């Protein structure tokens, strides 16, 4: 992952020239977006004549704004966040695997051919975070909790990168089955199945990933009991705030390795940058 120091984040804004490449982070509202504060220091550090700006676009103007940006010859692409991920996917001419798995995009590229290319890097960001933090998927048995959009992206990426087997568990078994079926369409490297928490042999998994919203609040129950997991099981969360959910804290206290949700975002920013052409 590209390393940007805290000092570089405080540098003055870049000088804009007549050939500056433009990128945006589209949201509504845009006050919460992080991408410009990450991308612009990287541009300055690398000596890249480019800038990323926040774009506060109300949903009713999304298509007009995106079509207009696609017509700008010096506009390269967008990081995409709430509430535009689903709607912008429908405006794309071509979608990558992550976007097709989730029906949502978090990155859009405008190419010289006039087409709009979209993808979703939540899953690939999660896997890149695992690898970057020193963990491997090959030969591992994985339990994924959840079957929503982010869970589908994670399932597809984890299976694509060669885990031995991945089971999907969800409160609604039908949604778990749909996610498993979708995941199987994108990989021939891993076997995919479904399970329930009542019947699963939780101690048989090498990696357990919480891709549900359980853990956002202090009084949430643990997604699965920590003491039901193997002692060397890697306990993962995709929740970014709080930085360490109570579930992760309990896993750490038990001596089990943990993987924080923020790694999924941190590591996918570089993937998004490469996709939209912002980074070499």
Notes on the structure:
It is a single chain. With 280 residues, this protein is α/β, with parallel strands linked by helices. It has two domains: 6-120, Rossmann fold (3-Layer(aba) Sandwich); 123-263, Rossmann fold, CATH 3.40.50. Helices cover 34% and strands 20% of the residues. The chain has a six-stranded mixed beta sheet with strand order 2-1-3-5-6-4, sandwiched between helices. A hairpin with a 5-residue loop joins strand 5 and strand 6 (116-119). Helix 6 (122-132) crosses helix 7 (149-160), helix 6 (122-132) packs across helix 10 (262-275) and helix 7 (149-160) packs across helix 8. The chain is globular and about 60 Å long.
Keywords:
Rossmann fold, 6-stranded mixed beta sheet, alpha/beta, single chain, 280 residues, 2 domains, 10 helices, 12 strands, globular, 6-stranded parallel beta sheet
Number of beta-strand segments = 12
Secondary structure tally, helices: 10
Q: What CATH architecture label of the largest domain applies?
A: 3-Layer(aba) Sandwich
Indicate the proportion of strand residues: 15-25%
> Per CATH, what is the topology of the largest domain?
Rossmann fold
Radius of gyration: 20 Å
Indicate the percent of residues in helices: 25-40%
- The CATH fourth-level homologous superfamily of the largest domain: NAD(P)-binding Rossmann-like Domain
Mind summarizing the main beta sheet?
6 strands, mixed
| Strand and helix order | HEHEHEHEHEEHEHEHEEEHEH
Task: Tell me the number of structural domains.
Answer: 2
Alpha-beta content class: alpha/beta
The pLDDT mean sits at 92
Distance from first to last alpha carbon? 13 Å
Strand order of the largest sheet: 2-1-3-5-6-4
């Amino acid at each position: 992952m590209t390393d940007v120091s805290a000092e570089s984040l405080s540098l003055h804004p870049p000088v804009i020239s007549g050939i500056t490449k433009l990128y945006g982070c589209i949201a509504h509202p845009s006050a919460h977006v992080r991408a410009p504060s990450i991308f612009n220091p990287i541009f300055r550090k690398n000596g890249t004549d480019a800038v990323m700006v926040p774009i506060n676009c109300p949903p009713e103007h999304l298509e007009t704004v995106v079509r207009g940006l696609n017509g700008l010859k010096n506009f390269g692409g967008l990081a995409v966040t709430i509430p535009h991920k689903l709607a912008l996917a429908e405006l794309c001419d071509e979608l990558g695997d992550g976007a097709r798995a989730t029906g949502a995009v978090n990155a859009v590229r405008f190419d010289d051919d006039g087409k709009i290319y979209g993808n979703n890097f939540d899953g690939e960001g999660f896997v890149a975070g695992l690898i970057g933090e020193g963990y491997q998927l090959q030969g591992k048995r994985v339990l994924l909790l959840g079957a929503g959009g982010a869970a589908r992206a994670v399932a597809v990426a984890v299976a694509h990168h060669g885990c031995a087997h991945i089971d999907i568990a969800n409160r609604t078994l039908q949604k778990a089955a749909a996610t498993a079926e979708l995941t199987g369409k994108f990989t021939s490297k891993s076997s995919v199945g479904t399970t329930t928490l009542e019947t699963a042999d939780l101690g048989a998994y090498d990696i357990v990933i919480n891709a549900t919203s359980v853990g956002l609040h202090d009084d949430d129950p643990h997604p699965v009991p920590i003491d039901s997991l193997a002692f060397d099981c890697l306990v993962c969360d995709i929740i970014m705030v709080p930085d360490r959910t109570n579930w992760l804290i309990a896993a750490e206290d038990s001596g089990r390795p943990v993987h924080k949700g923020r790694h999924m975002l941190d590591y996918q920013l570089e993937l998004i940058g490469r996709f939209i052409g912002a980074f070499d």
